[in-house]
């Protein structure tokens, strides 16, 4: 079946170059089954089985969220309240979620992911990555990844999130690169390490990532969120698809990144929720680094599923333009996952969102407003805003 979406005020396509958008005004788009079959000016639109008018609305490619931690039990609102009362953020909070995650059944974990994925859809996200990292024992890490695999092909093994309470540091690293990696590899595509103060050192990160690569996983990293331990040079050396957070980067880090295929994934929800300084996206962009935006959805440092919120904060606080932020949240996320999503192309999956707004600038211009009206994944509507 074909559907003609017409009277679109503005249809936004992402170009190959960072931040480049092509905006077609008074546009129409045809979706045939799961794919985009045509787009262009209304006047040139072909006929279709069904016609849907999107008068005054904007169509954008679905957001690609390249960094989320949806496999968890419980929540940490108390910790957030303490932080807002002046306590600093520390990686140790992760252990609170580890207890709740180990206690949750597969079905409880699955239900939690289902709820959060529905929130993703309501925010216009059509593709997402999911990490483990709140199990930190062989059984819970493996079952977390197995459940995550039901929702996405981009599943990341993050056994190296922190060292859990019950085991010595060296023993845990042996477990991660040994039995845990072996049990997790069949369910994952990526390996990630939290290389930071209170988590894993640079040497430990190297050992864990190299073991993951040898097992067939592709590397990515949590880097320089709390402190710069020199993770960027390692990430570039290992050709990590992405380095995430990057709150603290040196000029040398930026030079290295600009000559690499490694994307910098900024996660404004984390600085927002931990009351940390925002990294300056403008100096990355000026150096030619590819930037992605992700929710980092997790119960500790960034409990948001809203990509429009991340866009608004990235524009206001990190210095991205609205065009760059939209690109970073679509094609940037896709680059961070090394796939071709995040762009409306004839023949590509019809993954898109309809905004109740005359153009995409409204995503940053109207912070906190539910502008996403409908979301489609592979031509199928997965969300509709209540009228
Ligand atoms: O990406 N930085 C490390 N991991 C998560 C936070 C985990 C937590 O506090 O539960 C993050 O921010
Ligand atoms: Fe994270």
Chart the SSEs and their pairings:
Blueprint: E1 2-14, E2 21-32, E3 35-41, E4 50-53, E5 58-61, E6 63-65, H1 77-84, H2 94-103, H3 106-122, E7 125-128, E8 130-131, H4 138-148, E9 155-160, H5 169-184, E10 190-195, H6 202-214, E11 218-223, H7 231-237, E12 242-245, H8 251-258, E13 263-266, H9 268-274, H10 281-286, E14 291-293, H11 307-318, H12 322-336, E15 352-355, H13 362-365, E16 372-377, E17 380-384
Bound molecules: N-(iminomethyl)-L-glutamic acid and fe (iii) ion.
Radius of gyration: 20 Å
CATH architecture grouping of the largest domain: Alpha-Beta Barrel
Quantity of strands, as a count: 17
Total count of helical runs of at least 4 residues: 13
**So, the CATH homologous superfamily of the largest domain?**
Metal-dependent hydrolases
Order of helices and strands: EEEEEEHHHEEHEHEHEHEHEHHEHHEHEE
Oligomer: single chain
């Amino acid at each position: 079946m074909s559907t003609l979406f017409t009277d679109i005020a503005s249809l936004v396509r992402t170009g190959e170059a960072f931040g480049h958008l092509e905006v077609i005004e008074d546009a129409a788009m045809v979706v045939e089954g799961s794919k985009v079959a045509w787009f262009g000016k209304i006047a040139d639109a072909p006929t279709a089985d069904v016609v849907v008018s999107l008068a005054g609305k904007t169509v954008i490619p679905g957001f690609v969220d390249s960094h989320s931690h949806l496999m968890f039990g419980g929540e940490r609102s108390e910790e957030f309240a303490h932080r807002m009362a002046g306590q600093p953020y520390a990686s140790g909070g992760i252990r609170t979620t580890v207890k709740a995650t180990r206690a949750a059944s597969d079905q409880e974990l699955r239900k939690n992911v289902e709820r959060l994925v529905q929130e993703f859809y309501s925010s216009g996200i059509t593709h997402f990555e999911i990490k483990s990292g709140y199990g930190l024992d062989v059984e819970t890490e493996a079952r977390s990844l197995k459940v995550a695999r039901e929702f996405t092909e981009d599943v990341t093994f993050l056994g190296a999130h922190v060292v859990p309470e019950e085991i010595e540091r060296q023993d845990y690293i042996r477990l991660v690169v040994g039995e845990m990696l072996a049990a997790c590899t069949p369910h994952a595509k990526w390996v990630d390490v939290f290389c930071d103060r209170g988590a894993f050192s640079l040497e430990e990160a190297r050992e864990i990532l190299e073991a993951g690569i040898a097992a067939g996983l592709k590397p990515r990293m949590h880097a320089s969120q709390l402190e710069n331990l020199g993770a960027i040079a390692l990430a570039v050396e290992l050709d990590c698809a992405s380095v995430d957070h990057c709150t603290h980067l040196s000029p040398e880090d930026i030079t290295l990144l600009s000559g690499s295929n490694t994307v910098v994934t900024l996660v404004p929800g984390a600085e927002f929720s931990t009351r940390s300084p925002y990294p300056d996206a403008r100096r990355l962009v000026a150096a030619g680094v590819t930037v992605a935006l992700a929710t980092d959805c997790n119960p500790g440092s960034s409990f948001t599923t809203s990509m429009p919120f991340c866009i608004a904060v990235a524009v206001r606080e990190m210095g991205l333009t609205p065009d760059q932020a939209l690109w970073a949240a679509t094609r940037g996320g896709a680059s961070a996952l090394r796939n071709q999503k995040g762009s409306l192309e004839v023949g590509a999956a019809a993954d898109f969102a309809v905004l109740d707004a005359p153009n995409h600038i409204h995503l940053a211009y109207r912070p906190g407003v539910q502008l996403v009206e409908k979301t489609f994944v592979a031509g199928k509507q997965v969300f509709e805003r209540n009228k």
